[in-house]
């Protein structure tokens, strides 16, 4: 099982210096990938959110660096580490424009891009993007098909309900043969099953061990029912947890706590055949402590 790192691209640690430092430290330590995420805006007031009633958005969303631009900058400052998005919200993007941006990044980085897509959830962001949630599942399916067409052989064409591409030459193509791998970072049962039918992998958030087992099973079962080789599809887990030098004794979140506590949780995941777990450390520690914890976690897991 590989380890990955969520970059400090959001408030309060977000800065070019912090982003670069974490990426380069992660690469030097042998982490598999660094990851970014997308927020269009910080809506004011009480906002409907997953997992609870309307409430103010987390402060971490107050300032979020744009993911593709951030990873493009890091592509020039790193050599081997994978560059992932977890996630870009597919409905907010045009598949031709985003497909070209990601293909260019894949070329510039030597084939290191992993494209994680989500469906979006914040109503205010849908308003800002000028779209509605109507026909939501079909829009996501079409987006994935259209962006794969962009990355596929020329001439490219696509004729869908939401996206149309006239017969064209669209270059550059990704450096990776077969196109950039697509993960779906989704939560709802129907969306998880849809990911099993259309995506190259699944990017769940680690809410609990039990939920993760259930979600991965749903994903793989849907893939198998669609005639796909479920064992060939990636499962890359996102852990939005505090990672601390000292153990968390009360109320420890799953996959959170000290490096030793996390290593124990990861060992129990071996039977689930997870390909990677990446940690978006939400502890209030400063940059230097975050850097120190990267090394401590890698040593604890490698044992």
CATH architecture: Alpha-Beta Barrel
Based on CA atoms alone, the radius of gyration comes out at: 19 Å
| CATH domain class | Alpha Beta
Tally of helical segments: 9
What does this structure look like?
This protein is of the alpha/beta class. It has a single domain, classed as Luciferase-like domain (TIM Barrel). The chain has 9 helices and 12 strands. The strands form 3 sheets. The chain has an 8-stranded parallel barrel with strand order 1-2-5-6-9-10-11-12, surrounded by 4 helices. Helix 7 (209-225) links the parallel strand 10 (201-202) and strand 11. The chain is globular. The two termini are 13 Å apart. The model has no long low-confidence stretch (mean pLDDT 96).
Q: What is this structure, in a nutshell?
A:
The chain has nine helices and twelve strands. With 303 residues, it is of the alpha/beta class. It has a single domain, classed as Luciferase-like domain (TIM Barrel, Alpha-Beta Barrel), CATH 3.20.20.30.
């Amino acid at each position: 099982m590989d380890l990955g790192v969520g970059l400090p691209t959001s408030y309060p640690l977000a800065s070019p210096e912090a982003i670069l430092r974490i990426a380069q430290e992660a690469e030097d330590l042998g982490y598999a990938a660094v990851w970014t995420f997308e927020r269009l805006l910080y809506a004011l007031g009480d906002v409907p959110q997953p997992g609870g009633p309307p409430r103010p958005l987390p402060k971490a969303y107050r300032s979020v660096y744009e993911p593709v631009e951030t990873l493009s900058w890091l592509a020039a400052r790193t050599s081997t580490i994978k560059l992932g998005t977890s996630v870009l919200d597919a409905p907010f993007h045009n598949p031709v424009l985003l497909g070209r941006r990601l293909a260019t990044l894949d070329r510039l980085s030597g084939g290191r891009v992993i494209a994680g897509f989500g469906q979006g959830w914040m109503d205010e962001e849908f308003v800002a993007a000028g779209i509605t949630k109507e026909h939501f599942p079909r829009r996501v399916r079409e987006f994935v098909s259209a962006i794969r067409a962009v990355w596929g052989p020329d001439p490219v064409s696509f004729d869908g309900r939401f996206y149309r591409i006239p017969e064209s030459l669209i270059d550059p193509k990704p450096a990776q043969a077969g196109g950039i791998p697509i993960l779906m970072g989704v939560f709802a049962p129907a969306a998880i099953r849809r990911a099993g039918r259309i995506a190259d992998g699944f990017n769940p958030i680690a809410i609990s061990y039990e939920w993760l087992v259930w979600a991965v099973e749903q994903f793989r079962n849907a893939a198998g029912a669609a005639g796909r080789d479920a064992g060939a599809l990636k499962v890359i887990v996102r852990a939005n947890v505090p990672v601390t030098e000292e153990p968390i004794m009360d109320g420890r979140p799953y996959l959170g706590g000290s490096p030793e506590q996390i290593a124990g949780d990861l060992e129990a995941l071996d039977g689930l055949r997870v390909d990677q777990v990446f940690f978006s450390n939400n502890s209030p520690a400063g940059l230097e402590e975050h850097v120190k914890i990267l090394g401590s976690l890698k040593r604890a897991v490698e044992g």
